[in-house]
Amino acid sequence: xxxxxxxxxxxxxxxxxxxxxxxxxxxxxxxxxxxxxxxxxxxxxxxxxxxxxxxxxxxxxxxxxxxxxxxxxxxxxxxxxxxxxxxxxxxxxxxxxxxxxxxxxxxxxxxxxxxxxxxxxxxxxxxxxxxxxxxxxxxxxxxxxxxxxxxxxxxxxxxxxxxxxxxxxxxxxxxxxxxxxxxxxxxxxxxxxxxxxxxxxxxxxxxxxxxxxxxxxxxxxxxxxxxxxxxxxxxxxxxxxxxxxxxxxxxxxxxxxxxxxxxxxxxxxxxxxxxxxxxxxxxxxxxxxxxxxxxxxxxxxxxxxxxxxxxxxxxxxxxxxxxxxxxxxxxxxxxxxxxxxxxxxxxxxxxxxxxxxxxxxxxxxxxxxxxxxxxxxxxxxxxxxxxxxxxxxxxxxxxxxxxxxxxxxxxxxxxxxxxxxxxxxxxxxxxxxxxxxxxxxxxxxxxxxxxxxxxx
Length: 456
Known about the structure:
By secondary structure, the chain is mainly beta. It contains no helices and 39 strands. It has strands at residues 6-7, 14-15, 18-22, 25-31, 37-43, 52-57, 61-67, 72-78, 84-90, 99-104, 109-115, 121-127, 133-139, 148-153, 158-164, 170-177, 182-188, 197-202, 207-213, 219-225, 231-237, 246-251, 256-262, 268-274, 280-286, 295-300, 305-311, 317-324, 329-335, 344-349, 354-360, 364-368, 379-380, 388-393, 400-406, 412-420, 423-428, 435-443, 446-454. The strands form 10 sheets. The protein has a 5-stranded antiparallel β-sheet, with no helix packed on it. Strands 33-1-34-37 form a 4-stranded mixed β-sheet, with no helix packed on it. It has a 4-stranded antiparallel β-sheet with strand order 4-31-30-29, with no helix packed on it. Strand 18 (197-202) and strand 19 form a beta hairpin. The radius of gyration is 23 Å and the shape is globular. 49% of the residues are buried.
């Protein structure tokens, strides 16, 4: 059985007009000699229970850094894979360990590296003539339990699948041919029909599209935006937590970040959330301030900037700088790298040859639009804990209080009335998996939030 104890002392809540960020950042260098650092993936590569960092560099090939409690040890996968531009991972051969797949823009090639189970990797060529290759993502597009690849060729104006026959023999299948300058084709279930679709960004055509999968690996194109200047990266995520999949994209020439709201019928409305952001590259979605909604980590190559966009819960975003002067930053990724319950940020700077992560310290930073007349307090004990949790609430006036619990991705896992006025209630959390959660207590338009940890 699992329990956590939540105790709220009077006065307990913040006005909703107050912008509260539980995110302060402490910088840690992973590597400062990864020449041409260009792509990152966070994954438990050695399956030891913590998250490692996998990287590709134009001049240094492929490496991974083993997590040792927040410090990272270097392991080289293939230093001769020159011109590397993108790296990903999955169990390509279905043997239970994590393999690596990467693309080389310098040699127009796609390869995968077989993990022998002891993190010794053997390379296998998939294609050496995919001109201007950029992104390559593992995805099972035809539900045959074999990991296929979705890849783009910028110079050849191609989006293709490389279909895995189950013995890691890959057959190239064209999805899109002739739309100018594809840069990303990201997999996800856009239309919620149980199969994997694709979202694509075309840098020269200035387009964002999505491709619906009929379930067999046959795709139909749908234009989302044909005026997104220098469309660069696109991802699929339920950003507004309304149950359908939205799109999030960066415009390299337009210097903007936008999200495309899905109305549930795959009709998309564009919302610009960052402008004049000098050459935005990657974005990564996570609940960085533990308030139950989805924020965005972002990077700007020309701006040498790593920042995060704080979601106010109503899809209004405020940008906060994490690091300036990170020269030529390209990838940015988010995960809890030190298992403290807070989502951290990692990024790589091409011009510095650096891989760095920023520890989310959970420090409270307030930027009040209007200040409440009382100072709320929130105490959680024991934390972490296991079993049931008790919410003790004390208010200055009788108000109905609602308690919601969100998981680390921002998905609500509990919603219940806490109490009316001062009082307490006990909640059975025994069905929640062990992990970190955000507890959000709201009454009369005022709220307080804090991270809680459930353990076995």
